[in-house]
């Protein structure tokens, strides 16, 4: 117990220094908190007004559909927490920077594992609540849930996620002795994509679930001992009881007991496996493969395009960046989720061009960022000085800033564009959009996405200057706000013009859409794309000349 007290004091000190050490840090923390709250409010309103408010069912079926929604949410929490625990285990437990310190102090390694496990739960909760909290709040708004429901969302989410996290880290400890870290990351990324897509389809089709299955789920939850003992049904009971104003004491008690049991089992397994796994992952076996020496043609070498060669080299390194695959998949999830929700939820089927415009807007915001994540090694994510030094080879090469700008743009744009057009073509074909409009959407996405790539790399480089390094929060805001603002002005304006009937009840959006016409929308979109590209290129070249590695 003394080790745990020491660990809590240590983490509290770290938290204090990073969040409210002085006035400057406190202002930064407050600004981040306000930005997060605003983002959550926006997501809640989007989910409620565009999804839940459109679900028309009889009063008798509300409770049944509510239980089904909670069932889907709990299953998603379990699967996502489990897969995330496996995929991030090696990075968070074996290759975490603070392990070099923790491994040397006189603390048993199974307690070190316990420290890292609690940290992992907190980290997992912070990353996933961004999606789950708006969904659960919007669901509560749909059924007019009492205040206690909204207050209990975060505590209940923490309790529910403990069991899948514990199962995931136990599976990772055992699995890391069987297969390599690379295989772990690839497999879990694929499984996570499949889980998220499955949830999107299931969520969009929830209102079409047969009443027979709904009745069976309700009957199962009405069995007190069965539903209280099984962790998944107990989790559903907790959420459902908070909505209807009940206090499921037994469900909470059994869920806590089972959670403590799984933590204890993981703690005991770590006595035998944690140190051995950590030791294995500290050594990298180098395999030297014999390659055929091919004589190069001097003429061909002279004509070879250095931009293409550099991009190919960067892509090869990005593919090997297994530790960041999960983060990249998470960003792509927004685009994939939108596609499957639009398709299976039958959204905008009467106006598929609006759906295509919204997909273009989402792609311009998220897809470039999703690709760029793969090009940043995990160990430099939180260190701006190391992040900047990844440009050192380009800086010493005889390349002008304009050519470096082209390298970075194409490096992010090409894979993001390929993924984006596959999604928009699939959506357009299913909804019967004409060939001419499909080609127009593909062409429009080309220019909009290229402008988004230019905006992102210029903002990223600007965030690495001395001024923004000293004001890290402002630099991070730039890399987020600029792509969002660009996406809204370029593709979002088209979507808003086409969505006049959908936003008629939203006063602000309705007033803006009323003044839009085809000429204004085309001029605004084209001007935004051209201005974004030219300004980004100019800023990048100027900053590149002054950047000191």
Automatic annotation (TrEMBL):
Keywords carried by this UniProt record: Membrane, Transmembrane, Transmembrane helix
Pfam family, one: ABC_tran_2
Domain of life: Bacteria
Membrane-traversing stretches: 25-48, 60-79, 99-118, 125-143, 149-171, 183-204, 249-269, 324-344, 356-380, 412-430, 436-459, 471-499, 511-535
Protein name as annotated: Uncharacterized protein
Biological classification of the source: Bacteria, Bacillati, Bacillota, Clostridia, Peptostreptococcales
